[in-house]
Specification:
The complex is a heterodimer of chains A (153) and B (193).
Chain A lengths: L1 H27 L4 E11 L13 H4 L6 E12 L5 E5 L3 E11 L2 E10 L2 E11 L3 E9 L2 E11 L1
Chain B lengths: L16 H6 L1 H5 L5 H13 L1 H27 L2 H13 L4 H12 L2 H19 L1 H4 L13 E7 L4 E7 L4 E7 L20
Antiparallel strand pairs in B: 2-3
The chains are: A alpha+beta (153), B mainly alpha (193).
Chain lengths: 153, 193
Amino acid sequence: MTRLRNLLKASLLSSLLLLAVSAEGAENGSKPVQVKIGTILASNESDEFDARLKPMERQLKVMKYRSYRLLKEDSQSVPWNDNATFDIPGGRSLAVSPQDSKDKQIALKVRLTEGTKPLLDTTVRLQGRGYFLLGGPPHEGGALVISISASAQ
Amino acid sequence: MPAKNFKINLAPFMSNCETTREILGAWLDGELVPAQAEACRLHVDACAACREERHKLERLHSTMQTVLSSSASKVQFDPFWQGVQQRIAQQSKWYDELGDWIRGIFTAPRLAWAVPAVIVIVLAGLSIDSFLPNAKLGMQPDNLATVESIDAYGRNVALLHEGETNTTVIWLYQPQESENDSSTEPSESKPSF
C-alpha cells in the first residue's frame, strides 16, 4: 500500500513537471526572436583569417576565398512578424522578420537593399541556433558575406 | 510501586463481592491506597467466597513465580550475547556493503523518487534549448536551412548547399557598377564554390 502511494506521488510529480515544461514551450511561441547578424569581408588580397570567425571556418571556406575578416556583429530581439533592420557596409541594409516557428525551425523573411533599391528578398527556414550565409555584394575589393542566425528566446 | 487510587465507589466499604474481586489483585500486589486496602481486607475477612478467591490468586502467583524462576535458569544468555558482540565487532565484507547499498537503492521509497528524477533529467536535456537558447554546450549548431523563396529582382543568384558542413549559401551576383565602393578586381564578387 505504501509502495503504491509512493508510486502515485511520483506519477503526480512527473505530470506536474511535464505540464511545467509544456507551458514553458508554449510560452516560447510568443517571445521575441534573437536575430544575430555577422558581416564578413571575404577577399583574396591576403591570407588573413579572423580568429573571431574560427567557429564557422569550415562553413566559410566553402566559398574558396583566401581571407575572411569580421567587419561587424549585430544582434536584435525581434518580435514575431515584426522587422529589424541592420546596417550593412556600403550603404546597404538588411531587414529581417521572423515569420513563424515549426518543429524548432524559425522562418525568416530577409530583404537586402542598397539605398532604396531592393537587391534580394528571400524566406529561409532555419534550425534553432543555426545560420545561413548571404553573400555577393562587392566591397573593398572583395565580397560581403552576411551570416544570419535566429534563436527563440 | 506507588499505590493506585482506583476510582471505585467503596462506600459502604466493600459490601459488594464483585467490586472487591475487581481490585483483589491490586490489593495483593500492594497497589491500593491504605483506605482502600483496609476496606478490601475487611471484606475478604468477612466473606468466605472472596477469601477463597484470594487463596486462588495467591496460589496462581506462587505457581507462576516458581515456573518462571526455573525456566530462566535454563536460558543460555552467554552464548547469545557473545554472538551479538561478535556481529558488532566483525568487519563487514565489501560485497556485503555493496549488496546493502543496492538493496537500499531499490527499496520502494527511493525507487519512487528515482522515477521523477530520471524524468527531470531527460526533460532538462530535451528542453535545454528552451531554457538556455544561447548555450552551445560544446555542440556544433545545426545549420540546416531550407530556402523557401528567393527574388533577386532580375539579378543572377546562386543557391549552394554543402552537405559536409551543412552550409547554405545564397550568393547574389551584383553588377560591379552598382557597387558604391570602387573595386579594381571585378572577379572578386564571384566566388568559386
